[in-house]
Amino acid sequence: MKRRHKKKIPLVSYLFIFPALILNLMFFVFPFLQSLLMSFYDWPVMGEKTFVFLDNYIKLFQDAQFWNSLLFTMKYAVFVTPCLFILAFILALLINGAFKGVNLFRSLYFAPVVISMTCCSMVWLWIYNDLYGVLNYLLQTMGIIQDPILWMNSAKTSLPAVIFMVTWKMAGFSMLIILAAFQSVDEQIYEAASVDGADKVKQFFRITLPIIKPHAALALILSVIGSVLAFEQFLIMTKGGPAQDTTTIVHYIYNTSFKYFKMGYGSAITMILLLVLSVLSYFENKVLKDPTK
Amino acid sequence: MKRVTRKTWMNTALAVIFFLPLYWTIVTSLKDKTEIYGTPPTLIPKHPTLANYIKIFTLDDGLYRGYLMNSFVITAITILLVVIVSVLAGYGFSKLQLRGKGFFMACILAAIMIPFQALLNPLYSIMSKLHLLNTIPSMVLIYATFQSPFCIYMMKNAFDMVPDSLLESAKLDGAGAFSVFSNICLPLTWSSAATIAVYAAYTTWNDYLIALVFANSNSIKTFNVGLTNLAIGQYGTDWGLLTSSSIIGLMPILILFVFLQKYFIKGMLSGALK
Lengths: 293, 274
What we know:
The structure holds 2 protein chains of 2 kinds.
Chain A lengths: L10 H28 L2 E2 L7 E2 L3 H8 L1 H31 L7 H13 L2 H11 L6 H8 L13 H29 L3 H9 L4 H29 L3 H6 L11 H11 L3 H27 L4
Antiparallel strand pairs in A: 1-2
Helix pairs in contact in A: 3-7, 3-9, 4-7, 5-7, 7-9, 9-12, 11-12
Chain B lengths: L5 H24 L3 H4 L14 H45 L5 H13 L6 H10 L6 H25 L3 H9 L4 H12 L1 H17 L2 H6 L8 H10 L6 H35 L1
């Protein structure tokens, strides 16, 4: 019916997508291709670039600091994700329903999400301050600790401290995703279940949990992706230290490329980051596309 | 009528705990030095003062006033660019016949998958070739490139909801291509346009890494970068100053959130659920 001859598309139509395409080509497609190229070069910011083929990658596999930062980033992701998820789940349960103040509470839990990681890190750095921080004061007053804890002086205390801060900051985001799932459950299913004699606990495990599973998986994956890209919370709170113990992978790329100006080597590390991200993206798409699983 | 239930009380307790860190920062920023470092810490400032706020604005000949201005300017230009680019492209991808549409859309969607963190080095080398290093355009262009894919996607969905029959009848009435776009489609999608504007606002304002890499001179540094410089510099132990500047850094977005919550949440949720 609508079969037309090759209709000439007016040039003005292309003008609509032209700005977007130019941006995409110049600052996404082109850098994406170049990043692969760069990783095969010794590429200082100033001066001659030399083709070194796989040297950067060979160096990478022998670079203890690279492995440390990769492992540390994974460790961070593995610990922060369940903390975030559990708090988000509790929050979603608490604000699911109609009661006085529900909108206000939702906004309050969500507010830290919109604040920059930079400002949140500063806020908590003050709370964690060893001499004047309110946390040490409270713990000492309650008699839990004798001497003030130097929170940022070792990865043993700084990692949990940063995780606590990020959990506070980001829980509201996962909460929204889980809440959307809760609210997609048809009330009639519960009514039918209670008629059949299923109690609240049974309803939760048999009805609610299976239905929210895809949303929960999404919340988990998004928090893993966010954690893999962690940077400013550690830069600001621990400065990556002591002795680069808390340097994340993005932080290491930043140091290599923009502090020591080894752009080629930095690109090789970036390739590993890209690899990790594509695996995660694959899972994200799988979760998004198949809501029954 | 909503009732006050046990949930209200449980939420009240939790919300107070949630708000405490921010409250503590605000309170600290309003205290003088002796009170900040005195024990026991006070929950309400005894002699509230705005000295810490005045100090940050007058420090180093108003350096931080300049940083704040830069943040506002960069955010404003980025919002404008992102909205224009995304609304146009969203309309193009949704309503216009174009050759290679699928391929172009795929290129743009790929940029949602790959965050800018993974392309910092080539971006730096491209900006250096374009002689844009250390300029506001370098930052704005990168922000727009990495924010617009999601915004285009969102605008495309919004334009998809506008029925084609409406466009056809407008064309029969003699409306031109651009007039169909601006007079018929645009008014029906303004809520999505507002959502992407808000998305661009908080993403740009909150960014740290791009600003850190691409703005080196004081004349274009953003407030977030200035804030961390403050923390590692000679004022690193002046917590009155550090808390007041943190509050200044987070306030614009928080105020925006209070008034435009709906758009924040819509943007965040559709970003996650796609």
